[in-house]
Amino acid sequence: MSRPAGRWKETPVRVWICNPFDDIPGEGPPLRYHTLCRVMAGAGHEVTWWSAGFSHRRKARRAVPSGGDLPFALRLLPVRPYARNVGMARFLSHRDYARALWRTARAEVAAGRTAPPECVFVSLPPLDTAGVARRLRRTFGCRVVVDVMDAWPETFERVLPGPPGLRRLAGAVLLAPLYRAARRACREADRISAASRAYLDLARRYGATVPLHLCYHCMEIGPPPLVRTRGSKEPLRLVYIGAMERTYDLETLLLAVADARSGGMDVTLDLAGGGTLEAGLRNLGQALGLMDAGHARFHGLLDRSALDALLGGAHAGVVPMDPASGVGVPYKAADYAAAGLPMLSCLGNELGDLLEEFRAGTPYAFRDAPSLVAAMRAYYDDNDRLGEHSAAARTLAEARFDRAREYPKLAEFIVAP
After folding, report:
1. 282-331 pLDDT tens trace
2. Sequence-ordered list of residues with C-beta below 8 angstroms from that of 14, at least 6 positions apart, any chain
3. For the whole model, what pTM was predicted?
4. Strand partners, 54
5. What distances in angstroms separate CA 28 from CA 57, 63, 196, 406, one per listed residue?
6. CA-CA distance, 415 to 8, in Å (whole number)?
7. What's the CA gap between 89 and 366, in Å, rounded?
8. CA–CA separation, 212 vs 328, rounded Å?
């Protein structure tokens, strides 16, 4: 039974938040778990974030930032590095994280340096950590709350060879241990939250019967931006923010910009982020003649103020994501929507439903440059449509992605009796 509204802050709880992926303080804008740590600590709870000593996004070693007092404890566990998001090294790094969490937590509680948790909030993925959380529950009697933030191991079927039917059959065999781990994580959790309705549905299919809670990836949405329209002599300025990895079809995006320009549309593209494919994408942009003239610009990793400025100067954001990734609503959707940017998206899935519901974007077909060019033209030729979708994108942000409203709800769900 949920605690009465407004009373969840009255009983402090020792909460361990276990996620190795998100940026820690000093690495970038606060994401899901950094924000949740601050919200829960601000409500009086005793919070420890168990992260990893290797940055998933930057692919580099990291340390607890010096200077400035954090309102929560931040612990970095030793793990091996990995160069690619898909590969055995990453799985071994996840195993390192889970083993180090169990070993370190047990030793520190036994020595009296750390009080045992009353609640463990564990992200899924990685898969191994949920098993550690259950061991902590058996040892300390704590609650285990699983937060589903990606469809693992389903997403790995995409990298198997062969047609879809064969990949599913091969995945059922090769990924069987991972499927068992995911099913057990959902069936044996005390509560489950998720970053999309699709992930809540996945938890149900895995046998979850416990209370469920939806919390999208949100952000501080700030004051309403100006509605985006394009002046008659302005280019249509597109922006992409995020990782440059195989899940994102950025090659087609560059090709479509070049095709649109050759067809008479004045279109530009700004890209912020980085990844293993960045060098190849830069080369492609150069080969297409987009770089020297400034029609495509790579900005690298930006801090929050620079990212806000980049978004503030754009007309539309692009979500060139593979629908087979299983991602429901990516982080970048909240950034775009809060900035009042309509979205050109090939992801479909839950984001596609939201864009259709709010009339806040235009779909195109994955890996289909002509389809993307047509989506660009819909805004290039129709300023009214651009303005209407811009206003609707902001409405979407206020309704679904407002961090100040949604994360306290998640925090209350985690600690409510």
Report:
1. 999 999 999 988 999 999 989 889 999 999 999 999 999 999 888 899 99
2. 45, 46, 48, 115, 116, 117, 118, 119
3. 0.86
4. 61
5. 10, 14, 23, 21
6. 7
7. 29
8. 16
